[in-house]
């Protein structure tokens, strides 16, 4: 399961990551509404955990804009300290699927997320990405090529998902860095190291290479056809 947590309380975010990653789930986090909306609109998630009071754009506005986007049926659970009935009604009218007041127990959030996924059922968009013989199941997080299971680190899996979603188009370096580190990328060219590891898994054992570098632009994932030229 892949979760997006849009929450500015870093202690809470750390607790959520520790709890859910220990159970085998993958999480992304956004510290403000604008960043969260961008991730929710451009990436694929099973559930969005959305705080109400956020910097730059509040949770209700994030939710409204997300629901206006075509095919944005991702389940959303709203977190807030507001526990009055009018607040809950406002949250549901904005498009929330569930509403949990702070403070809360992490096991309760977990079972509510499981219930959202069960209710969502078949209305979610396809959870499998495929390019040539490369396959990524977004529900199980399993990647395979030619029927052979690939063992990927979480960072490599995020890069692979982004490249496959854009394929065969190029993905700028800045976008890939944002996928991994948000607005605070590390010093040095860490992206190149992660792409190198991804290439080892995806392309290393196979004759047809899918991951290509576009100098001064970024990377793309595509099979090179006759008449094409690999960068």
Task: Give a summary of the structure in a few sentences.
Helices cover 40% and strands 22% of the residues.
Can you give a write-up of this model?
With 231 residues, the protein is of the alpha/beta class. The chain has two domains: 2-123, Rossmann fold (3-Layer(aba) Sandwich); 128-221, Winged helix-like DNA-binding domain superfamily/Winged helix DNA-binding domain (Arc Repressor Mutant, subunit A, Orthogonal Bundle), CATH 1.10.10. Helices cover 40% and strands 22% of the residues. The chain has helices at residues 10-21, 33-42, 59-68, 85-94, 106-120, 154-166, 173-181, 190-202; strands at 2-6, 26-30, 47-51, 76-80, 98-101, 128-131, 134-137, 142-145, 148-150, 170-172, 211-214, 218-221. Strands 2-1-3-4-5 form a five-stranded parallel β-sheet, sandwiched between helices. A four-stranded antiparallel β-sheet has the order 6-7-8-9, covered by helices on one side. A three-stranded antiparallel β-sheet has the order 10-12-11. Strand 8 (142-145) and strand 9 form a beta hairpin. Helix 2 packs parallel to helix 3 and helix 6 crosses helix 8. The longest helix is centred in the middle third of the chain and has 15 residues, at 106-120. Residues 226-231 have low confidence and may be disordered.
Oligomer: single chain
The CATH topology label of the largest domain is Rossmann fold
Question: Percent helix among the residues?
Answer: 25-40%
CATH architecture of the largest domain: 3-Layer(aba) Sandwich
């Amino acid at each position: 399961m892949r979760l997006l947590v849009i929450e500015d309380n870093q202690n809470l975010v750390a607790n959520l990551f520790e709890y859910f990653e220990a159970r085998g789930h993958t999480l992304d986090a956004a510290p403000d509404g604008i960043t969260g909306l961008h991730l929710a609109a451009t990436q694929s998630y099973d559930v969005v955990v959305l705080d109400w009071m956020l910097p730059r754009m509040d949770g209700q506005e994030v939710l409204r804009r997300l629901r206006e986007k075509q095919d944005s049926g991702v389940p959303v659970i709203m977190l807030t300290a507001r526990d009055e009935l009018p607040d809950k009604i406002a949250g549901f009218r904005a498009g929330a699927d569930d509403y949990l007041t702070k403070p809360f127990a992490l096991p309760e959030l977990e079972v509510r997320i499981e219930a959202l996924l069960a209710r969502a059922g078949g209305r979610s968009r396809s959870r499998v990405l495929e390019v040539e013989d490369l396959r990524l199941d977004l529900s199980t997080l399993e990647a395979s090529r030619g029927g052979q299971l690939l063992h990927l680190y979480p960072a490599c899996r995020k890069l692979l998902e982004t490249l496959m979603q854009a394929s065969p188009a190029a993905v700028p370096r800045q976008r890939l860095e944002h996928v991994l580190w948000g607005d605070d990328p590390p010093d040095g060219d860490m992206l190149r190291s992660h792409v190198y590891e991804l290439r080892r898994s995806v392309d290393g054992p196979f004759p047809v290479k899918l991951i290509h570098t576009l100098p001064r632009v970024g990377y793309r994932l595509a099979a090179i056809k006759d008449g094409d030229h690999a960068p």
